[in-house]
Amino acid sequence: MFFLLSREKRKVNHFIAAKQNGDIMKYSKIIAIALLAAMFLAACSSAKTPVKYSMAQSISTGCSTPNIGETGVCQIKITPGSTTAPTPGIDQQAGLTKSDAQGAVTVEVTPLNLDQPADTLLFDISMNTHSVDLSMDLAQLSTLTTDTGKTIQASLWDAPKGGHHLEGKLSFPAAQKGKKLLAGARSITLTINNVDVQSRVFTWQISK
């Protein structure tokens, strides 16, 4: 009887040992998988970060080649680009554009050189309609008046004749009786008469 009990005890011990060995193998596999995942994440984190380039910057990079198991080192040098100050031009002129849509004709006027007048004051004028003949001479229909009381007649309307969509330049003398028209003026008014309506008035403030 004692012999049989001893043999059964040995069987139980063998079973327990085999089970423990199996658990150890299972845990070893889990640990190995975790280590592989950690190595993969470390490799991904050492990848290069994309660099965004800007028109206002020049960027130079220098990277060392890493050995196996090491992380490369990159040096990035950013040199600020030069900036260009805005110059007077189309954008500023567009802000000065004024429009009059009375009657069947839309008239848009943009002064071209009020800030730097030469021998003439120039205005860019466009006219659009679907029914009115635009063959009139705007030089005969336009006057320029300052807040100082000076008034002057246009000298030239440079544009094609006729049509329903027209653009040209209207010129005025920059001086009257030897004196500059804009001298001491704070505002200037362009009046265009008899283009489908009695009058169209456009006024600009003059900065000093």
Write a structural description.
There is one protein chain. By secondary structure, this protein is of the alpha+beta class. The chain has a domain at 90-205: Immunoglobulin-like (Sandwich), CATH 2.60.40.4170. It has helices at residues 2-45, 90-96, 138-141, and strands at residues 57-63, 74-80, 98-100, 105-111, 120-129, 142-146, 151-153, 156-158, 165-173, 175-176, 179-180, 187-193, 199-205. It has a five-stranded antiparallel sheet. A four-stranded antiparallel sheet has the order 7-6-12-13. A hairpin with a 5-residue loop joins strand 12 (187-193) and strand 13 (199-205).
Record the SSE blueprint.
Elements: H1 2-45, E1 57-63, E2 74-80, H2 90-96, E3 98-100, E4 105-111, E5 120-129, H3 138-141, E6 142-146, E7 151-153, E8 156-158, E9 165-173, E10 175-176, E11 179-180, E12 187-193, E13 199-205
- Elements, N to C (H/E): HEEHEEEHEEEEEEEE
The number of distinct β-strands equals 13
CATH class of one domain: Mainly Beta
Beta-strand proportion: 25-35%
Question: What structural class do the secondary elements suggest?
Answer: alpha+beta
Radius of gyration, CA atoms, in whole angstroms: 43 Å
What's the number of helices?
3
The helicity comes to 25-40%
| Unreliable spans | 47-60, 81-93
Q: How do the strands line up in the largest sheet?
A: 3-4-5-9-8
Termini separation = 124 Å
The chain-level mean pLDDT equals: 75
Inertia-based shape: elongated
Q: Tell me the major beta sheet.
A: 5 strands, antiparallel
CATH architecture of one domain: Sandwich
